[in-house]
Amino acid sequence: MEKFSRNTRIAAITKTLIENPNKVINLSTFTEEFNAAKSTISEDILVIKETLVRQNMGRVETVAGAAGGVKYVCGMSKKDKDKLIDELCTILREKDRIIPGNFIYMTDIMYNPEIIRKAGLILASAFVDKTVDCVVTVETKGIPLAYEVARMLGVQLVIVRRDNKVTEGTTVSINYVTGSNKRIQTMSLSRKALKSGSNCIFIDDFMKAGGTALGIINLLKEFDSNLVGIGVLIEDVEASKKLVEDRVSLIEFSGLDENETAVIFPSKCFK
Amino acid sequence: MEKFSRNTRIAAITKTLIENPNKVINLSTFTEEFNAAKSTISEDILVIKETLVRQNMGRVETVAGAAGGVKYVCGMSKKDKDKLIDELCTILREKDRIIPGNFIYMTDIMYNPEIIRKAGLILASAFVDKTVDCVVTVETKGIPLAYEVARMLGVQLVIVRRDNKVTEGTTVSINYVTGSNKRIQTMSLSRKALKSGSNCIFIDDFMKAGGTALGIINLLKEFDSNLVGIGVLIEDVEASKKLVEDRVSLIEFSGLDENETAVIFPSKCFK
Question: Pfam family of this protein, just one (chains A, B) (predicted)?
């Protein structure tokens, strides 16, 4: 039987843990893969554990019991969080991002895996100690961010559609009023998409008054499910009275200044 | 200045490499972080390199020159690929997945991060030696898979919309005919979303005749960009003559059998 050095085992175990956030991996997976005693693997994991804590890179938790093992719980140092949020502020203040109607063009950011991976990690870290069964979003721009949060929390992603699709079976549709310009919109979700009694968090790219989030709360009621948290990349702090409380955001937007530049600041949430 | 053991450095460097697929990381990042000589870090990386090759977990490449460094290139062993594809086949053959209209319900699979991460890795590994500037998909079901492929290749994701959005500035829209039921559909992409001269791969959940892929080729022409590859999770091999050649898929679907069960097999692409 092949033997592996401690260094080799540590590299391979680290890779497996990092690739499977919030998933409990039984130690026997590693004892079999490396033909090593449980005590040896435990020592390897202790090294990884100490490294992550020391470097502020998240943590490794031990889960006791028959279905027990170890899992990687995502995390990021305050320094790295601040760095990403500051970089995002600089990017969002770029003058040529303002498009007709005084919107900020941010599609390139929402679809940039390097940025979205880190932003998703920051948002996920806010919910990592809650019981979360799934991450909900409304198509389209927030999907990569919501997917990253779901991946980091090791749970299912649920995407609410704006139309009905023949390929999704029976759907439940609700109408809701957008908080900012009072338009009536529809959102739909397949009956098969969400188990009754799920604890959900809602992730989106941008929040104004929170009409969409309110719609999500009502839609979740149709599935006997609860909203236990809201996370957005940017929130518009100028928008009229917020319809939902208790949310986290990375960045605050408060309109355009006299030079037609977006007024953008880091949120207080991760300060 | 703090000192770190080889074990600690290997755990931390592995994490950083795995979290940044296909991104060149300069060795100075690590020499500064660990207060270590370049030769020491090179030895650490050699251990990680050998581990990944030995365990069939992808590879670490050294990039020479001033902007050089090391990068993790994703990969998966044939055994793990076969395992995922076989599991997917079993799931897709479940009888209660057939919904009215003889569609297979597969939304839960497309939005399951554990499955999509591995499926994305398999598809990305097919394009990892090509020059790819971005990954293109059409909303909505294929977005998480396309995002994973983009993340693994370290490139931008581009999402083509079925409607125009006021928040995306000037858009280019084209009409295309679906290959299977000859309906006319529209797809739109913001002018800002794609640089001229980009090499793109198209990723989607399901391919029938390939009408959507043909539409993408025409849309890319409007941006003076090229399609250099197509990857889908499932392809319908019963569909009439394929409109596009040269694609990879994980799974082949050939209709329902006399028991109304989906006829599903692993594709030849990754066999």
Answer: PuR_N
